[in-house]
């Protein structure tokens, strides 16, 4: 459906940039913000006519949405009057929309001794919209639906530690702003961005209205895209962390103790006394990885995967070879 085909209530929501289920407080806040932006006194002569039309459309939409609660009550009363006569103990069927409209019109326009004017259903629907307190048709304002400037993207570099624990980052960037003369100038601003624990590379944090401004448009959003710095020890795979550990051959055969600091600040310790660490050996530590951002279970984490690389000596003496052969001969 094109914009021009939309019914007035749909345009009202679009003009105020609110959802259809927005609360009265949200509608009021949106109206105040737009009214401040598009008040004609705040615009230069060359753009004042456009500002006046938009200001008028914003006010019209706000007042119409305030009437909706009363409109719903009148329609509901009309529906009860038309649908309350069902027989046989069953549930009364819902009356057709035009019957509801006709009843509502009758409530507002019918006089004693007078007859309800005949009109097609579409005309009666317009009558009941007017009778219930709605504003006039919005055709003259449909071309003034407030547009929004394109979003402005900026990158936010984060360490793996910051993505693990979560943090707040201050990002300084340059945005376009419209001055009092209607001209676009550059302005350096700083936004504080909240990085949630477990966020991944490519995650986006949107700050509404913090992007570029354009004459005749709402300010665009600022979109901050998370970028992950390379870590010196860990590699991230989804919500898992991978660590590669190099083990000397003698320790792999006789026992080894592994200890390293985790991203969250704690320390991981593991002793290998009765295990032989062979090339390709992998140890999985459940819940030792990254937090699961937006996961179904609170506190869920990925795994820590430790991959072992056994380091063999570059050379052996004849005596060392003979000694190893004597020791390992019976281990096959």
UniProtKB/TrEMBL annotation:
Domain J, residue spans: 11-79
Keyword Chaperone on entry: yes
Keywords from the named record: Chaperone
Pfam families: DnaJ (PF00226), DnaJ_C (PF01556)
Annotated Gene Ontology cellular component terms: endoplasmic reticulum
Protein name (database record): J domain-containing protein
Organism name: Urochloa decumbens
Lineage of the species this protein comes from: Eukaryota, Viridiplantae, Streptophyta, Embryophyta, Tracheophyta
């Amino acid at each position: 459906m094109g914009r021009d085909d939309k019914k007035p209530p749909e345009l009202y929501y679009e003009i105020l940039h609110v959802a259809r289920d927005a609360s009265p407080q949200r509608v009021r806040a949106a109206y105040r913000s737009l009214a401040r932006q598009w008040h004609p006194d705040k615009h230069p002569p060359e753009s004042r006519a456009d500002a006046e039309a938009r200001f008028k459309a914003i006010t019209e939409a706000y007042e119409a949405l305030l009437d909706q609660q009363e409109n719903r009550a009148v329609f509901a009363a009309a529906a009860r009057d038309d649908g309350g006569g069902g027989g046989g103990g069953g549930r009364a069927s819902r009356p057709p929309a035009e019957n509801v409209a006709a009843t509502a019109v009758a409530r507002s326009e019918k006089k004693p001794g007078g007859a309800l004017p005949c009109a097609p259903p579409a005309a009666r629907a317009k009558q009941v919209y007017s009778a219930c307190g709605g504003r006039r048709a919005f055709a003259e304002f449909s071309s003034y639906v407030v547009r929004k400037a394109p979003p402005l993207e900026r990158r936010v570099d984060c360490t793996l530690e910051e993505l693990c624990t979560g943090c707040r980052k201050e990002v300084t960037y340059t945005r376009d702003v419209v001055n009092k003369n209607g001209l676009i100038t550059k302005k350096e601003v700083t936004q504080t961005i909240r990085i949630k624990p477990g966020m991944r590379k490519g995650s986006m944090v949107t700050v509404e209205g913090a992007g570029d401004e354009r004459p005749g448009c709402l300010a665009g959003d600022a979109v901050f895209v998370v970028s992950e710095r390379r870590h010196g020890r860990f590699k991230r795979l989804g919500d898992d962390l991978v660590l590669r550990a190099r083990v000397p051959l003698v320790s792999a055969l006789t026992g080894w103790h592994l200890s390293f600091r985790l991203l969250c600040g704690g320390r991981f310790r593991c002793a290998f006394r009765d295990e032989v660490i062979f090339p390709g050996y992998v140890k999985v530590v459940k819940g030792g990885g990254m937090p699961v951002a937006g996961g179904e279970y609170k506190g869920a984490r990925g795994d820590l995967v430790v991959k072992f690389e056994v380091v063999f000596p570059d050379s052996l003496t004849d005596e060392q070879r003979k000694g190893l052969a004597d020791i390992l001969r019976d281990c096959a």
